[in-house]
Amino acid sequence: MMNSTRLLRSSISSVRTLPPRGPRLVATLTTAAPYDGPPLPPIKSPSSPQQLVNPYLGGLQKGPAEASTFQLHVYSSRNNTIATFTNQKGNPIAWWTGGSCGFKKSNRSSYEAGYQCTVRAFEKILNHRNEVGPFSLEVVFKGFGQGREAMQKALLASEGEKIRPFVARLTDKTPVKIGGTRAKKARRL
C-alpha cells in the first residue's frame, strides 16, 4: 500500500511540474472608457455648398441651402380645384379656386379652371419671392381631379419656367383606401 501511495504522490507532483502545453491565458481587469452615446456622423464643413437635385432641370444645382421652404398645396376634387400657397409653418398666404378664377357651376371642375388657378398661384409665388427673398418650394398634390393634371402641365409649360428652378420637392398626399370601411351602396338610375 505504501508503494501505491508513493506512486500516486509522485504522479501528482510530476503533473504540477510539467510545463503548460498551450499558450497561457492571463486575465487582467481594465476599466472601459465612459459612454458618450452613439457615434456622430462625419462633420460637413459649412463652407461647402449643399447640392440640390431638381428633376425638371436634369442636373445638380449648386448653391446655398434655402433657409425656408414654402408650400403650394393643390387639392383637386371632381367638383373643384383649390390651390393654396402657404409659408413654412403651414399658414396660408394666398389661395385660388375654380370659382375665384371666374368659372361658374360645373366649369369649376374643368381642366382650364385648374390651369388658371395654377397660373395665378405662380404669379403670386414670384411676387412673394421678390418681397421676401429666396426660398425653396414644395408642391403637394391631393386628389385625382382634372386640376391635378392641369397643375403638372402648367409646371412643365412656359408658365412654370420661372418657378421650376426653386421647386425642391413634389409630394403626393392623396389618401388611398386600402381595405377600410364598406363602400356606399351603388346608385341605381
UniProtKB/TrEMBL annotation:
<dbReference type="GO" id="GO:0003735">
    <property type="term" value="F:structural constituent of ribosome"/>
</dbReference>
<dbReference type="GO" id="GO:0006412">
    <property type="term" value="P:translation"/>
</dbReference>
<comment type="similarity">
    <text>Belongs to the universal ribosomal protein uS11 family.</text>
</comment>
<dbReference type="InterPro" id="IPR001971">
    <property type="entry name" value="Ribosomal_uS11"/>
</dbReference>
<keyword id="KW-0687">Ribonucleoprotein</keyword>
<dbReference type="GO" id="GO:0005840">
    <property type="term" value="C:ribosome"/>
</dbReference>
<dbReference type="InterPro" id="IPR036967">
    <property type="entry name" value="Ribosomal_uS11_sf"/>
</dbReference>
<dbReference type="GO" id="GO:1990904">
    <property type="term" value="C:ribonucleoprotein complex"/>
</dbReference>
<keyword id="KW-0689">Ribosomal protein</keyword>
<protein>
    <submittedName>
        <fullName>Translational machinery component</fullName>
    </submittedName>
</protein>
<dbReference type="Pfam" id="PF00411">
    <property type="entry name" value="Ribosomal_S11"/>
</dbReference>
